Every structure is written in C-alpha cells, then in structure tokens.
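Figure 2 data, in text form.
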Amino acid sequence: MKSNAGAEKPQPSPEIDSNKFFQAIIERRISDAEKELDGIRTNVPGTDAAKGYLKALEGLLLTSKSTDDKYLYLSKGEMTATKIKALRKEFAQQNTNALHSDYDRGYFQALESYMRRLEREGPPPEAPTSQSSK
C-alpha cells in the first residue's frame, strides 16, 4: 500500500496550465474555454491525478454552459465571496485527504484552483437568460 505522507498536494503535472481556461470560464467566453480545454486534453499526462484534474475542468465547462443551475453544485447565482472562500477551503481539505485516491485529489485540486481564482477575480457574471420570457 502506498503512503501519501509528505504528498499533501499532488500536482497533476507542470504541463497542465489551466489559467487561461479559468479566465475564459469566469468571463463566460465558452468557445475560448472549449479551445483551452482541447489544448489541455492533448497535453495531459496519463496520471490518475491529471485525469481527475481534467474531469473537474470538463465539469466546470459543462456548469458554465448550463442555463439552469437548479441542480448544479456550483450555482452561479449563489456565488458570494463568503461561499467561494468556504468552498475553496473545503476543496483544499479534500485535496489533501489521504483517504482519497490520486484521481479524486486531482479533481479537488482543480476545483480548489478555480475557487482560488474566483477569490481574486470575483464570481462569474450571471448567465444570460433564454430569449423566452415567462
């Protein structure tokens, strides 16, 4: 059994640079985020942590594309500075939890990185509503 002692923050890989992806998500530039994600996919190493990191990025993209946040955990309508900070701390805790697999820690690392970016940039703007009015 492998020990995770000393490996508090597994790095998916130095080749994964998600800064442009996060910025595109925050600014709701979906097509740019998709292009960035395609570039990340082609360079992602085969490690479990990197695969988990990539899966979290894919989830963030799907979340940002959705116009209905009723069932989304990261609901854009409820993103306050306090909630962002609390989520970042929760994801950081999960990221360092030795009981999680490398895949899970990579997943939580991506979400923690996104929350850290949101802490600096502020929550993403509301998604445009559909053209039909109720």
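Caption note: The two ends are 57 Å apart (CA to CA).
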